[in-house]
What we know:
Layout: H1 5-18, E1 21-22, E2 52-56, E3 61-62, E4 82-89, E5 95-104, E6 119-121, E7 125-127, E8 130-136, E9 144-148, E10 154-155, E11 161-164, E12 168-178, E13 181-193, E14 196-199, E15 202-203, E16 207-213, E17 216-217, E18 223-227, E19 233-235, E20 240-243, E21 247-257, E22 260-272
Parallel strand pairs: 7-13, 15-22
Antiparallel strand pairs: 1-19, 2-22, 3-6, 4-5, 5-13, 6-8, 8-11, 9-10, 9-12, 12-13, 13-17, 14-16, 16-20, 18-19, 18-21, 21-22
Amino acid sequence: MYKPAAVTGIFLTLFIISAGCAVHPAQSNTTSKPGIVTEPPTAVLPPLPEQYNSLPAVIPHANPAVTTPTFPESLPRLEPEQRSTINETDLSGNSSNSSTSVTVVPAISGTAAIPIAQFTISTDNGYAPLNVQFTDSSLNNPVSWSWNFGDNTFSTDQNPSHSYTTGGAFPATLTVKNAAGTGTYTANILVYSPRISINPDHGTEPLTVSFAEDGFGVPAPTAWLWAFGDGGSCTGRDPTHQYLHAGVYDLALRITGPEGITWVNRTSSVVVT
């Protein structure tokens, strides 16, 4: 049955919108001048370098204070060495994702109390590279600090900062010592590392390109907004886009998830001849 051209145009427009993609009007005009479309794209993009920009939308917080026993200044001599572990619980009675342990060693009268390890962190989740500031808040005057950030990196500074460059769940552990003994504290840092794949990234016009965001880590993002550099944009994790004109196109991707929002920008991502 014959369909008027106007009806056909409406159907195609609805199909594009339902797919989550928007094609800039200049893309559909075959008489347009070849090259990169200079009009603003549908997605408003900040100027970004060719790298990830970590902007975790989380409120800095401190780990809850550790519940510890009170030790007298004069400690009894204990034989043999004894160890105890304190597991935290929240107000609902559920176990937390951090733990504390105290090592009691033989001591003589007049020595300091056993150190209780604890620390605060600027954030415990976000997108790579995720910069985290660790601040020691240990009790009972430790004299040395040993940090294991959980990604095969270490520090002996009292208040170090560390950048997580890969995705994953990393147990960050602080060990403190003084003459009376050793204490440890562990908190998990959750990091997601975005990654873009483009296939193909070059070819002759018109060029159909498949995009995908297949990063690694936890928790995974929940929303994606792509800007293809020619005025077209699209939502979804694995969109397909067609470039109608020759040019060199930049790509920008906005990722949203429990960690907050980050942008991934790649210059000269697609070359159409």
